Amino acid sequence: MNLDQELAARVAVSGDRQAFAQLVERHQQPIRRYLRRLLSGDDATADDLAQETFLTAYQKLHTFKGRSSLSTWLHTVAYRQFLSWHRKRKRTRPMAEVPDQGHDTRPATDAEILARQLLGQVGPEDRACLTLAYSVGMSHAEIAQVVDQPLGTVKARIHRAKLKLNQWLQDNDHSLQTQAKRKANGGEQRHA
């Protein structure tokens, strides 16, 4: 039995708050990062949904059967929190600019800003599949379990979303290399 399963069992059987605190400490950052990507950088809402995720997890940990990793189960709970929030808000427009970084003290890199903007270009289900694949590193089978969709649907969502994002990058002449060259050229012109 691995540490996550052991801690989860202690919580499920006796409501052990210290064990749950250890689980939160182990999984809080990956869940927050996942939700921040799903919300295209809306860090405050992502943090709220992360709290809701762990509250729900504490209440429902007795339903965790160990058929998947605890991380996969927590990502499933987080995804359902996100979908519930999304249905209530009906937010379908991509964000216009990157929101304030909140209490994340390290500045966002050009790549992080572009990733947030790009993820805002695809729908929530596609965004979830892309984030789980490339940010979290889950297999297609694990993603299918999290989003509760057939494996073929997950593969199709990822493929379509990648095509859409590549097209958007080409249409808008956005690439990190292009941005870096613009900054370098702009910097040379200002100092000349």
Please, could you describe this protein's structure?
The protein has 192 residues and is an all-alpha fold. The protein has a single domain, classed as Butyryl-CoA Dehydrogenase, subunit A, domain 3 (Up-down Bundle). The protein is built from nine helices and no strands. Mean pLDDT is 81; it is low at 91-105, 176-183 and 187-192.
Helical/strand content category: mainly alpha
Mean model confidence by pLDDT: 81
CATH architecture descriptor: Up-down Bundle
Helical proportion? over 70%
- CATH homologous superfamily - what is it? PhyR, sigma-like (SL) domain
How would you sum up this structure in a few lines?
With 192 residues, this protein is an all-alpha fold. The protein has 9 helices and no strands.
Write the layout of secondary structure elements.
Blueprint (H helix, E strand, L loop, with lengths): L2 H12 L2 H22 L4 H18 L9 H20 L20 H10 L4 H13 L3 H8 L3 H21 L4 H16 L1
Key attributes of the depicted protein:
Butyryl-CoA Dehydrogenase, subunit A, domain 3, 192 residues, globular, 9 helices, disordered C terminus, mainly alpha, 73% helix
